[in-house]
Amino acid sequence: MAATPFMLSSPALHNGAMIDKQFIYHGYGCDGANVSPPLHWSGAPAKAESFAVTVWDPDAPLRGGWWHWVLFDIRASTDSLSAGAGSASSSHAPPGSVEGTTSFRKTGYGGPCPPPGTGRHHYIFTVYALDVSHIAGANDATTGPELTALMAKHILGKTTLTGRYGNY
How confident is the model at residue 166 (pLDDT cuts 50, 70, 90)? Predict the structure, then answer.
């Protein structure tokens, strides 16, 4: 019998679709509500000991893109994040998880807000299944690139969901 594929879904975010205004950043000329969307994953590798979630914009006009969310050390028993889980208030994130530092230089979720004139951007929501319960060397100052380097040898699987936002 084939294993169930590792999949990421959201009732509020559909793969390839435009991201709703409530999930857009508030500031820098953007007027969204800056609420992280609800996420649900299934079919994770059986040996997963934790999960990490990132949101990355590869289209940002900066080398390495823009990191909108860095969340890790999510317990293996977790299979979803509610809307607003990326609030700067730690009471919204899953118990024991750690919010890393985004490209906004803040912890918590920072929604899409592409600079004017840069066109439509892609926002890649990724859930990583990891073979460790805690990512050694990571803390709330850890950035997206640092996190991906620290967890590189511990990834059992990953799944993505991509939303779009911006103007042509």
Answer: confident
